[in-house]
Design a protein that fits this description.
Blueprint (H helix, E strand, L loop, with lengths): L1 H10 L1 H14 L14 E6 L11 H7 L3 E5 L6 E7 L13 H18 L3 E7 L3 E4 L6 H17 L8 H8 L8 E6 L5 H15 L4 E8 L4 H5 L3 E5 L6 E5 H25 L3 E6 L4 H8 L1
Parallel strand pairs: 3-4, 3-6, 6-7, 7-10
Antiparallel strand pairs: 1-2, 4-5, 8-9
Helix pairs in contact: 2-4, 4-5, 7-9
Length: 293
């Protein structure tokens, strides 16, 4: 019985995290207000029985002793796709603090928020195949199914896989409904050819009146940690080839890589109206979520 309970908790990892984070945001345990994906404020209306109590403006109640709810523009149900890059580089560092795990945690929180807002959501996870490809729905059962699929994927995924993120984006473009919100989660570690193709793919999706949001998942290496080593051994997570470089070479490599991401991927996307958010795995999940909304 104890083993069964432990297994149940382990299988609910992403659900537990999502529930905790959303509760923190709603209950005000973190500085700042939380409005989910709601957009520009429209007006106040007298609160009616049966309405969501989260929309009540308690400051107005304190002044007037009357209940008013806040209403926003664009309250119509949204269609949101979370599209995750689960290639081998996302497994770094290869432990519980990996970029992949943080991305899965973020997806679970976003889906939780969307379900509470009665918005439709879909999760697509791409490794060397379409590992997860859920329908576009808004039900609680759909949310529970996604939690389960995220848990199973994380427990059984391996980092010895090819990168086919760009290849499979071409396959999912026809199934994306127009006027949707697309959230791409990736460390943006692409080759020059793949980077150009990625920008072209997002331009095509943007032309279909979709709103596109990139969550750039990355880690920040501590300078002091790197300076403690004369040389560093790098292992390509896909090919398993080993490379040994000295500290200066590593520093130059990091600079070149960051410049490539900024100049060849991020800036061109920003110019096309794509929103890009840096997501540092060094930060807490709560801090990451606050940067998104």
């Amino acid at each position: 019985m104890l083993e069964q309970k432990i297994q149940k908790v382990e299988n609910s990892l992403f659900e537990l995290n999502a529930n905790y984070i959303v509760d923190c945001l709603i209950q005000g345990r973190h500085k700042g207000s939380f409005k989910g994906f709601s957009s520009e404020f429209k007006e106040y209306k007298s609160f009616q029985n049966g309405e969501n109590t989260r929309n009540i403006d308690w400051k107005v109640f304190g002044k007037t002793d009357k209940l008013y709810s806040k209403h926003f523009y664009n309250d119509a149900s949204m269609k949101v796709y979370c599209i995750l890059d689960a290639s081998s580089s996302m497994f770094y560092p290869n432990n519980d603090q990996s970029k992949l795990k943080r991305a899965l945690e973020i997806i679970a929180v976003i889906c939780k928020i969307l379900q509470q807002q009665n918005d439709q959501f879909s999760v697509i996870v791409i490794s060397n195949q379409l590992a997860i490809n859920t329908p576009l729905q808004a039900s609680l059962a759909h949310l529970k199914s996604i939690y389960h699929q995220l848990d199973v994927f994380y427990q059984h995924s391996e980092n010895q896989i090819e990168t086919k993120y760009i290849e499979y984006i071409d396959l999912i473009i026809p199934i994306i409904k127009r006027k949707s919100k697309l959230i791409f989660l990736s460390d943006l570690l692409f080759s020059e050819i793949d980077a150009e193709k990625f920008i072209h793919q997002l331009s095509e999706l943007k032309s279909l009146n979709n709103e596109i949001h990139i969550l750039h998942i990355h880690e920040q290496t501590e300078k002091e940690h790197v300076e403690n080593f004369e040389s560093i051994e790098l292992i390509d997570l896909e090919t398993k080839l080993e490379h040994r470089i000295n500290r200066n070479q590593w520093s130059q490599f990091s600079i070149t890589l960051n410049e490539f991401k900024r100049n060849r991927i991020i800036l061109p996307l920003l110019e096309k109206g794509v929103k890009v958010n840096p997501i540092l795995t060094n930060d807490s999940l709560l801090e990451n979520i606050r940067t998104i909304f």
